[in-house]
Amino acid sequence: MNTEIFYNRREDILATKDASVPNFTGLSLPQENIGIVDNRGFEIDAGIHKAINKDLFVNFGGNFSYNKNEIVFMDEPERAVPWQQLTGHPYGAQLMYRAIGIFKDQAQVDATTAKVAGTKPGDVIFEDVSGDGQITGDDRILIDNWDYPFTFYGINMDATWKNFTLTILLQGQGKVYKRSQYDNRRGEAGNYYKWQYDDRWTPTNTETNVARAYNRDDLYWSPDVRMSTYWLENCAYLRLKNVIINYNIPSQYYSKIGIARASVFVSGNNVALLYSANKIWDPEANNPGVYPLMKTFAIGANITF
Questions:
Q1: So where are the chain's domains?
Q2: Model confidence, pTM
Q3: Could you tell me if 168 and 65 are in contact, meaning their C-beta atoms sit under 8 angstroms apart?
């Protein structure tokens, strides 16, 4: 077993002096080498190599890694609310509203003080994080697991029995969020995804976590108007990435014709998604608007002269 623990401080990262010159001045400063980011983490890999008997040999291994960075300095201006300070959070953390449900009916809309003007039943409920009884920019929170997953892991196995060898590779990642929608044109301007249609809010289906149908992007909870956690999907997954079955052909069948070694194999890539926190699209794809990963299978031979 091998274990590595690391700490790395990166300095002289390009950043703008936002605290030195506020936005209301209209001035734009060039980026300077002032940013500081800490990186911490560890990696563990272990394996066993064992002969079960004279015909069966097994190699089994696995790895797990954790890596998280933290902004130490970026000349950040003081925010009105402390939970929006990027310093102390991972690089790439995003500010957005926290979605906590769907308005069931007009009675719930009327009884809710903290809401956006024009709210209708079926709209997304934002949490009043500041507690001031209204929804403002101060209610946005930082989402850390946005730019990259903090954890990766994998499992590999080789099992050899007589002339047959089975090779398996599993890989996965921990929690990382991706946007469930980039093109928000719907209704007259585009089609709906299936996840936006099934079990969506309607006057007769009010107990749901899927918002109402809408036209184009003229709504307050559009990701291009007020980005919120409603549009995020956790893309943690575990995938059976590769499977190979190989058969080494005995040499008596080809040694007299000048062949030194020969084998045939069947292989599969992206064979099965064993676990996915994301139920909408393939978690390895950036968003549901791109083509999913393809399963590929091959039959071949390796011949050495």
A1: 78-147+183-222
A2: 0.86
A3: no
